[in-house]
Here is the input.
Amino acid sequence: MQVNDNKEFQPLIVAFCCNWCSYAGADLSGTNRLNYPTNVKIIRVPCSCRVNPMFILRAFQRGADGVILCGCHPGDCHYTSGNYFTRRRMTLLFSMLDFLGIERDRTRVEWVSAAEGAKFAATMNEFTEAVRKLGPNRRLEDLRCRKQ
Amino acid sequence: MLKISLDKLGKLFEAISASQTLYIPTDREDGAAEYKKYESGMKLSNNLNTLRSAKDFFFPQTENLVDFKMEGKNIEVIDVREESEDFVIFGVRACDARSFTILDKVFLADPVDSYYKNRRDHGTVVTMACTRPAETCFCGTFGIDAAAPEGDAACYSDGESLFIEAHNEKGQKFIDSVASLLEEGDAAKLDEVREKTRDILKKLPLANLTTDNFGGDKLNEYFNSDKWGELSQSCLGCGTCTFVCPTCQCYDIKDFNTGHGIKRFRCWDSCMYSDFTKMAHGNPRLTQLERFRQRFMHKLVYFPANNNGEFGCVGCGRCLSKCPISMNIVKVMKALEVK
Amino acid sequence: MQEAMINRAKQLLADGSVDRVIGWKRGEFVYDITPAVFTSAEELDADFVYDDFTAANVSKYLVKESKKEGKILAFLKPCDTYSFNQLIKEHRIVRENIYVIGIPGGPKLDAERIKANGITGILGAKNDNGTLIIDTVYGEEKMPYYEALSVKCLNCKSKKHVVYDELIGEDGDILDSNRFDMVEKLENMTAQERYDFWREQLSKCIRCNACRNVCPACTCEKCVFDNPDSGVENKAATDSFEENMFHIIRAFHVAGRCTDCGECSRVCPQNIPLHLLNRKFIKDINSLYGDYQAGEDTTSRAPLNDYKQDDCEASIVHERGVE
Here is the structure.
């Protein structure tokens, strides 16, 4: 990707995708030739509930400007209930980040099934735009990791 | 002795900060005092001492030592050291002033710690005599006179004026730089103020504490004492005592991977932590009892053994007020002491 | 009260019902009280103390003490009983080895709050109808009693003992505490104001870990922040990010398990209001998943180990409150 100072800000988006639904959804959007921004870097996890709050913070530390977590729709979890736990955890975590004054649009949870390639692409487009508007992540950034 | 009226203190600070960075103890919103970089209008704290000690100026909690940049198979080593700017720390108490002498023994002994020395060379310590010592003070135990502090220059207040006296060349240079604000004053009343402070010091609850039965030759008396179990049983293993201590000087060196390079930094370490002095084989002190013992043996036995009898404590009393479970060097000394 | 406690402890030691007693030991001054284990009537007579300054919660010590041989007597204040119950629920303490006597709680005083009022040389302190009279090296000083209270006692949630084998004194009630007022005040600020508030507070952190080590809910054998293999272990916060991360993760890890005993804020040498982070989680849990008080019982499912199919979505965070 070319970085040009004259162009608009290119946010770095980390997307945690569950192996069974969302990652397959991302795959489908690819095979359907749907566009979604190259800003999105996907990390595949066995289940959305594998994502420890630390993962989200570490992503921000290492330069992410937005973090999105995708999993199976509630009720469709490959492991029956993983995403229900995820939902509670992430609700509380995002609420805490909001409480500490971190912009709330930098984080999101979205349920994307294996059949929803179009939804995956649309979500990523929308989320990337939202983060682009916020500008670079400064409040939850580790200055040591900033590239000079 | 040269003096300046107390109500002109602001002018003095302005004058100092015009030529170099000035740090003064100032009150925080929660009532605690801390050293802050002087800005116009900042008030000198009335508190006896700052929450964190003054050692931060010479030995900060974390500092970058060196950076590494990797490109392919090449590693570039970047020296991040910069010559420190001249700075003045104003209002250091006698206990903290002595702590620099103790830190010097560690960091300026061969091999000299150039990071520490750089800051030490550029910092001027201006001390302030105490007039209202607290119940937690026991600097007298270590032969420190709170009414006549060390440092490059010392200040004394008689309630109306602040008298300044140089102790060495650096202190003289400091006084010369603000000489236009100072006038010759009669220091006769100061002796009275000092005597009054010394009278209070004698009446403090810890005035009778002595180090007579501690020192470098007491290893066998204390190392295997059966008191350690009881003393350490409620220790939480936190680092509060070490981090507020003006003389604790242990540190760890670590690497941080930034994703595009390595930053090697050092940070304070605490002997109370389970991973203190961890080596390839593991940790030499496996229980909290051993870690707790290490801290006090270091201050009362090992340090004097290696430093001509100088103890690794200055009696500032910070650990007495700050320990979450109120276990501290005074209680240890009293429980342990074999006469 | 102290007298009655010592007498009862001596009785129980004498008839062999217990072998040890955990309580508080007198210090050099009126306020520097250390949690301690007593094994004899002589020790109890000499050093056992229970007064306005005995604020420490001893329940966490029982994790270790209850695994030793013999039975231990623990004196628990109402707030301590919640921590105790939570530890039982998490199978961290051996209940059979503990004899619990419930004792009336605070409010407790905090010497640091007295000192923050410029009072120094403290030798004694006495409450006289809302005025604290302090005996000092420099003569008698006065200050409002309320201002000298420990932060953990300012919004007492309950005077009720949720677990005990016997009581000394009377049991109280669950109180209407207004403990979420400050959280609410922060929630109503703008994101920038909240950010500035927390930056100011958390930048004071010296990473002494006192909050973690005193916390009755923090009983991991090895904390992730102490584990060099975790990638996040650090002995000092070298960047503002690390100050944030440590406190977010710590608060998150005790979310749903924190009983709001307030020990974290009591011990913080830098007076950071850490309890506000925990209370934010408690408030969110109460409003999103139904009222829940950790430590109230030993059987209910913790909110983060539980779910409902119709739980709210995480987007609720975006939909409510001010930006």
Notes: Chain C has a mean pLDDT of 93. Chain C has twelve helices and eight strands. The two ends of chain C are 51 Å apart (CA to CA). Chain C touches chain A through 51 residues (CB under 8 Å).
